[in-house]
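Per your request, structure below.
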């Protein structure tokens, strides 16, 4: 009925506004990680200079450059660069990325909940995830835009899995795109969630279809998503030891300093500080009043249904099995954020890159939202379901209180600046993670882009000066050493008169080329390593397979003929 559609749209719009009103407010706000503008500008610059896929950025690393987007998931910033290139200023671009993230989180959670539980369950699932306090921490306290985008992809992944189980042709398509979005938005969330999504798939498959073909379809979708995103994750996994990444795994960033306590899940504290050792963090890890209320209702219904199952076998065991499976996934996600899970962290060294065990809340809030939706779905009686759904929704909407910054600023451009010199001098110290490992720890922006030994700088002409390519012309002179103010890193190739030559690292770790006597052209070019080369081709091949499989059936038959 039309009125039901209007009511649904109004409710979802209300949830969206509750999570996003601060972004729609005039001005903007400061967060812990206010690096978004710099990342957008550096991505835009690299794309405009012809680099794709973007890996190297030229102004970070104190003006010597660094391979930021070889290791930092790039998808949000590709979209941000497109908007910035079209004319939006940096702050408006960041606002759009926030709004886009919240909208797709809301729609994905509703689609998932509705596909499992119907309309009422979909509404509660959407509200519980979109208004989870941990999302507010990411958006309005930490400014963890990439992690918020990772959370955005999670309900779409499970929705794709459910559609595959229901034999919908769009299922594998949504699953592949959502998985690729996750891998290209926040690799740490992917590390936590992908194995659990496989367990969810097995759980749902075991209580519904048990057809081997569906398992193969899901497995193929995962492989195709890995192929599509291979240009990013393969080099990121294999070349990170060439950077200072290990420096962010010790000291303050050591994972064992950031475990949570159970009381923090139920303590409605709210703050804008940081994370530290002990239960008195300056930021909140509260799960939410409405979310905890919905979980309590679900647990009561599980006990009630289990008792009825014992007394009357007409009740389906698979309903309780699904609920228990979801509870186990939630419990595991929360457990991984607690100190008692440290043995698992020690046994799996890769987990140390997560840095903060409380990041497992990114996964936990999705399973918690699904359990909230399940609780509503299990209620018997139309009046009871409507009353409980309405009451729970009101409590969830009260979480709008958390979706606010500490304060607004009328001049956000002072924080989210785009000036290259400011990025070199001020932003580089905030983003040191992927500076090449041989670079000096005490860097200041270079005074000149190229230095020639012996004071022959006046005898050079700059022919090309792009982030991924430099070329100079030297007049007649003695043997010289040309030092480019560019950090050396695998992939940089030096040229002398268009012929490849070897180069060395200068005193700060920058690129040095020895030039014989005479007039010469000297250049450096950012090129692929074998791993980057094959990862790019794997992504291209996967894209061709994806496009072919996505073709309508009638068009596929024409292609075959």
């Amino acid at each position: 009925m039309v009125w039901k559609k209007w009511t649904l749209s109004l409710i979802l719009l209300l949830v969206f506004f509750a999570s996003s009103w601060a972004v729609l407010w005039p001005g903007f706000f400061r967060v812990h990680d206010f690096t978004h503008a710099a990342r957008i500008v550096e991505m835009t610059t690299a794309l405009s200079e012809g680099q794709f896929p973007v890996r190297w950025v030229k102004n970070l690393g104190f003006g010597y450059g660094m391979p930021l987007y070889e290791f930092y998931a790039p998808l949000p910033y590709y979209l941000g660069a497109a908007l910035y290139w079209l004319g939006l200023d940096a702050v408006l671009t960041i606002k759009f990325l926030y709004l886009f993230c919240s909208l797709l989180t809301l729609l994905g959670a509703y689609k998932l909940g509705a596909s499992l539980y119907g309309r009422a369950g979909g509404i509660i699932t959407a509200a519980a995830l979109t208004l989870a306090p941990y999302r507010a921490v990411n958006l309005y306290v930490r400014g963890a835009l990439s992690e918020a985008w990772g959370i955005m992809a999670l309900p779409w992944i499970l929705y794709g899995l459910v559609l595959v189980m229901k034999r919908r042709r769009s299922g594998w398509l949504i699953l592949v795109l959502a998985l690729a979005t996750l891998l290209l938005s926040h690799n740490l969330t992917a590390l936590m969630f992908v194995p659990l999504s496989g367990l969810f798939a097995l759980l749902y498959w075991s209580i519904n279809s048990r057809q081997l073909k569906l398992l193969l379809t899901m497995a193929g979708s995962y492989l195709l998503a890995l192929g599509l995103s291979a240009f990013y994750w393969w080099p990121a996994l294999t070349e990170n030891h060439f950077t200072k990444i290990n420096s962010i795994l010790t000291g303050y960033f050591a994972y064992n300093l950031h475990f949570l306590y159970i009381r923090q899940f139920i303590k409605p504290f709210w703050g804008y500080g940081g994370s530290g050792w002990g239960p008195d963090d300056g930021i909140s890890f509260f799960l939410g009043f409405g979310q905890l209320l919905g979980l309590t209702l679900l647990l009561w219904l599980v006990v009630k249904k289990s008792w009825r199952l014992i007394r009357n076998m007409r009740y389906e065991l698979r309903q309780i099995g699904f609920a228990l499976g979801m509870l186990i996934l939630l419990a595991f996600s929360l457990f991984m954020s607690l100190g008692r899970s440290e043995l698992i962290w020690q046994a799996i060294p890769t987990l140390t890159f997560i840095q903060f065990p409380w990041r497992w809340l990114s996964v936990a809030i999705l399973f918690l939202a699904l359990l909230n939706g399940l609780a509503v779905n299990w209620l018997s009686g139309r009046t009871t379901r409507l009353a409980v759904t309405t009451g729970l929704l009101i409590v969830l909407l009260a979480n709008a209180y958390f979706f606010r910054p500490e304060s607004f600023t009328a001049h956000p451009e002072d924080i989210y600046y785009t000036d290259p010199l400011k990025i070199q001098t001020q932003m580089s110290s905030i983003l040191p993670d992927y500076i090449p490992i041989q670079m000096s720890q005490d860097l200041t922006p270079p005074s000149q882009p190229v230095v020639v030994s012996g004071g022959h700088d006046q005898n050079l002409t700059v022919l090309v000066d792009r982030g991924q390519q430099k070329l100079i012309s030297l007049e007649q002179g003695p043997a010289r050493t040309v030092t480019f103010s560019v950090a050396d890193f695998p992939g940089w190739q030096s040229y002398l008169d268009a012929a490849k030559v070897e180069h060395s690292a200068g005193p700060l770790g920058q690129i040095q080329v020895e030039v014989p006597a005479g007039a010469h052209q000297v250049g450096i070019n950012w090129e692929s390593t074998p791993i980057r080369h094959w990862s790019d081709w794997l992504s291209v091949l996967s894209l061709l397979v994806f496009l072919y499989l996505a073709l309508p059936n009638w068009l596929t038959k024409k292609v075959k003929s």
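The chain has three domains: 2-30+73-227+255-404, 450-528, 531-560.

Regards,
D.
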